[in-house]
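Subject: sequence -> structure tokens, single chain

Hey, anyone have a minute? Need the predicted structure for the following. Not urgent.
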Amino acid sequence: MKVKTSLTLDQDLMPVVRHHAARAGVDLSTWVEKAIRDRAAHEDLLAYEEWRASWSQEDKDIEAAFEAADRAEELTA
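Reply:
Had a minute. Here:
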């Protein structure tokens, strides 16, 4: 479901946004929505990577063991 809203953007940014939307062949709202979704996905990935970087060596070893078991199962399937 779509919700109507308004955004305030820098006037120097509007031509850039319009250009990219036109180049993508979509309307302004669709392009902005995709840009927001892409940025949110990127932020989620960064948070996930940060979380994994905080793992102890034991946690990393456990993950590696599970991944090795998964690969072995795929080879025998």
